[in-house]
Design brief:
It is a single chain. The chain is built from 14 helices and 13 strands. It has 411 residues and is an alpha/beta fold. Helix 1 packs antiparallel against helix 9, helix 2 packs parallel to helix 9 and helix 3 packs parallel to helix 4 (82-90). The chain has 2 domains: 12-278, Aspartate Aminotransferase, domain 2 (3-Layer(aba) Sandwich); 280-407, Alpha-Beta Complex (Aspartate Aminotransferase, domain 1), CATH 3.90.1150. Strands 1-9-8-5-4-2-3 form a 7-stranded mixed sheet, with helices on both faces. A 3-stranded antiparallel sheet has the order 7-6-11, with no helix packed on it. It binds pyridoxal-5'-phosphate.
């Protein structure tokens, strides 16, 4: 048996919805994109929602709308995907990498404060891309981009306090966090990720995310001004979008800024509307799979992911285990080879940014600058978790894992 790391969950409804768009004569951003935005807005407590071509696009638009300027600094977790930091570079900004909590993998706010001070003092990063040497110049830290790793939300109230104390904006990389939710201690009502948790919250609908449009994303904000700027910049900096122009709006648009091309097509949005309607059902399916992993992987030489407390609703985008390497005679990479031989798909989230050539060479980040991420990432393995994984498939994953771990002579 072979179990892929991920398989999208697509029903006849999605196929029919996309086919209907193909037959309609209107392919790009139009009525279905507007409908997707309206439905998504409802799902995140009525905040403004802008459908775009990716989460990366959403984050780029967000930092642009918030006014990020060249050589201003932004706190970014080192435990993330490339996109979180590269959008800072798009604007000429300097990502200041922050270490993670050992258990959740989420950004450590105490380290964020340490890194912020070092950046303010000109101590970090050691190099800037526009200087060859070790110039020490105080940087102005203007924002923070937290990531909810795997869909387990950080304490967004704590992030907000940290941001307010240090005069920062907050852009959430919520690529994993739909539909994730939280509630304050003792309260019964859930608040969705994106409902007042940041200045802008950015979701991903990439092929293997919790809901998908193939490629796609959504930017969510409570601010009409920020939404207006992002909407304008998402379509060439025109003062009207294509739908407005061609459906009774004026032909006479105005270019008000050199914008980007980040709109979501109706073909994709039709897929999104159907996926959104099934988002909670799919989350519950993943939650059941997570529970089965917790039950059946007990007692093995590995750490299971942090369980959400009663104040968190976990999207379960990822199920990242950590190998107890001191109890094993093989390392993580050999372990992954064994999984592959056993027909089990996997991924690793992630090689931290500071261990990539670009961030090492251009900014001079050192493994010891981010010791927790450096230590922990060599233990990480993300297991398959997706609604269309059958019980037999998950049984196979558990079986192969047990075989490899129990069949591996202890050190
Ligand atoms: C997938 C992912 C992104 C990028 O999403 P796209 O929609 O592909 O741009 C950004 N951040 C994180 C943490 C991700 O996992």
């Amino acid at each position: 048996m072979k179990v892929p790391y991920f398989r999208p969950s697509l029903s006849e409804n999605e196929i029919e919805a996309v086919t209907a768009v193909l037959r309609s004569g209107w392919l790009t951003s139009g009525p279905r994109a507007a409908e997707f935005e309206a439905a998504f807005s409802l799902a995140v407590g009525g905040r403004h929602a802008l459908a775009v071509s990716s989460a990366t696009a959403a984050m780029h638009l967000a930092v642009e709308a918030l006014g990020l300027e060249p050589n201003q600094a932004v706190l970014v977790p080192t435990m993330t995907f490339a996109a979180t930091a590269e959008v800072v570079r798009y604007m000429g900004g300097i990502p200041i990498l922050v270490d993670c909590e050992p258990d959740t993998g989420n950004m450590d706010l105490q380290d964020a404060l340490r890194k912020l001070k070092l950046a303010n003092e000109g101590e970090l990063p050691r190099k800037w891309p526009d200087t060859a040497g070790n110039r020490r110049t105080a940087l102005k830290v203007v924002g923070i981009i937290p990531v909810h790793v795997g869909g387990l939300m950080m304490d967004t109230a704590a992030i907000r306090r940290f941001a307010d104390d240090n005069d920062l904006w907050v852009v959430e990389d919520a690529a994993h966090a739909f539909p994730s939710a939280w509630r304050a201690n003792g309260e019964s009502d859930w608040k969705q990720c994106g409902q007042d948790t940041a200045d802008v919250t950015c979701f991903s609908f990439y092929a293997n995310k919790t809901i998908t449009t193939g490629e796609g994303g959504m930017a969510v904000t409570a601010s009409p001004a920020i939404e207006e700027r992002m909407r304008c910049m998402a379509l060439h900096g025109l003062s009207r979008d294509a739908w407005g122009r061609y459906s009774g709006g004026s032909w006479d648009y105005r270019i008000v800024a050199p914008g980007y091309k980040y709109n979501l097509t109706d073909i994709q949005a039709a897929l999104g509307v159907e996926q959104l309607a099934r988002a909670e059902a799919m989350r519950l399916a993943r939650e059941r799979q997570a529970e089965r992993y917790y039950a059946e992987l007990k007692g093995l030489p590995l750490s299971l992911p942090t369980r959400p407390g009663p104040d968190r609703r976990h999207s379960w985008h990822l199920f990242p285990i950590k190998l107890n390497l001191e109890d094993l005679s093989i390392d993580r990479d050999e372990f992954l080879d064994r999984l592959r031989e056993g027909g089990v798909g996997f991924s690793v989230h992630w090689r931290p940014l500071h261990l990539h050539p670009y961030y090492q060479e251009v900014f001079g980040w050192d493994p010891d600058d981010l010791p927790i991420a450096t230590r922990e990432w060599v233990r990480l393995v993300s297991l398959p978790i997706f609604p269309s994984m059958s019980e037999a498939e998950q049984g196979h994953v558990v079986h192969v894992l047990r075989e490899v771990l129990l069949g591996t002579a202890p050190r």
